[in-house]
Amino acid sequence: MTPRRFKTPEVVSLQTEASTSYLPFALVGIDWIHRAIFCIMQDMRIDEITVFVRVLEAGSFAAAARLLGMPTTTVSAKVAALEKRLGTTLIHRTTRQLRATSAGELYLDRCRAALQEIETAEAELASDNDEPTGTLRITGPTVFGRSLLPELIMAYRQKFPAVKVEVLVMDRIADLVAEGIDLAIRVGPLKDSSLIVRKIMDGYGGYYASQAYLDRHGTPQTLEDLADHQIVGFSRDGKMLYRGEIVDVTLDAPITSNDFYVSRSFIDLDLGIGYLPAPMEKAWRGQQALVRVLPEYSTPPRSLYFVYPRQRFVPARVRTFINFAAERAELLISSR
C-alpha cells in the first residue's frame, strides 16, 4: 500500500512501501500541517506494529493488553487495523490459542528487529542522563520479598528517587517477558534459559531461637542436645553442612510448617528452636531479633541470582538496581 496523500515532489521517501514507511524521513518542503499529519500517521503505524509484536510475544491479546496498559479490545482493534492496512492476515485466532501466519512470522521478525533498533537508539540517548527513571518491576520469592527487598529498595530510592518500584512477591517462576517484569530474584541452581543471570550472593540457613526461650531452657551446645529441646520443624529441612560435610539431621518436632514466616512466628512465641533462612534472623516491627544456635551447622549454600530478559540495552533502572543490590546484599545479611 503506497501513501498518496502528499504529492510534494521533494518527498521521495513517501513513495516507499508501507512496511518500511514508519522509518524516519526528511520532510523537506512539507508545511507544518502536513508534517503533523505525517507524524501522526507514523506514530499510529509504530503503535500498531508494537502491539502486534507484543501480542505474539505474550501469547494472547489479554496478556499483551496487561503489558501495554490498554484494554484488550484496543489491542485487538490495532492488530485488525494493521492487517487491514497490509491486506493480509498476520495472526490466526482460535478460542484457545493464537499463532502467527507464515506472513505474520516473516513480518514479526522484521518488525521486532526494527523496534529493537528504535528502542536501543532511544535508550542509548537516555543513558546520557545518569539519573535512572521509570518503574522498576521486580519479583522474588516470599522469604526475600518480605525480608531482604524492603531495605534494599528503601536505600535504593534514597539514592535514585526518580525510580518507582513495584514489588511482586510470588513463589512461582514468573514469565518475565509475558508479565512485563524487569528483574527477578531466583535461588539456584538455575535451569538453563535465555535469561541473563547475575549472581548476588550465597545464602544459607541455620537454627534460631528467641532469647526468652534460651533463658528458660538453656542453649544447646551439640546437635544431640536438641533432643532435649522443643523443635519448630520445617517440612523441607533435613540436610545440614557441618565442617565441610553434609549430614542428615532428623529432629522430633511437635510443630511443623512449610512456611518460613509461620515458623518465625512460632519461634517468636518462644515455642522452640527452628530452622530459618539467614535473612529472617533480624528483628522487624513487632518482632524480636533471634539468636543463632549451633552456628557450626548451616544449610549447604545456595546462590542467589538476579535474572532479567535478554535485550540489547538494559534500562538504567535495572542496571543501577542490580549493581546497588550486589554491593549491599552481603552487608545486609552480615549485619543481622
UniProtKB/TrEMBL annotation:
| The organism's place on the tree of life at top rank | Bacteria
- Which keywords does this chain's UniProt record carry? DNA-binding, Transcription, Transcription regulation
Domain (HTH lysR-type) spans: 44-101
**Single annotated GO MF:** DNA-binding transcription factor activity
Family assignment from sequence similarity: Belongs to the LysR transcriptional regulatory family.
Q: What is this protein called?
A: LysR family transcriptional regulator
Q: What organism is the protein native to?
A: Kumtagia ephedrae
Q: What is the lineage of its organism?
A: Bacteria, Pseudomonadati, Pseudomonadota, Alphaproteobacteria, Hyphomicrobiales
